[in-house]
Request: fold
Amino acid sequence: MAWTNDENDPQYEYCQLTYQALLDATDARGKHFQIYKSLLPNPPLYMDEEEAKGIVKDKFDAKPRNNSDRLSASYVNFYQGKNFVILPSFGVKEDEEAYRLFSSLFPKKKIHQINTREILLGGGNIHCITMQIPEVKK
Reply:
């Protein structure tokens, strides 16, 4: 789960609530989950003015973004293939810790960490852009 230790971060309260909910939750067999915390970049990442200008409304209804909008930078938005994991990187100190965590969680998979800031500008990350698109039957 995404996590921050910074009590001044607006995400701190949400992380605490989510963690508590997961601690209390069980799977279908009544077994508690093993929870892994993946630190969010600290300080948080924000969109700059030039990046905000680059997001334009188009036929896909791109949401206009504002200068200084917080980017939803998190390592939990990754993609897992058969033999590999594509893990976001953001050019911050937490990148290395995320690499170590995911290497330990997926010891038999090759971890490919790539900078995904451009994807973040659109509001999502690797998992969001690799999700399946269901076929619509007419």
Notes: Residues 2-130 form a domain with the L-arginine/glycine Amidinotransferase; Chain A fold (CATH 3.75.10.10). The first strand starts at residue 2 and ends at 3. Residues 11-24 form the longest helix (14 residues).
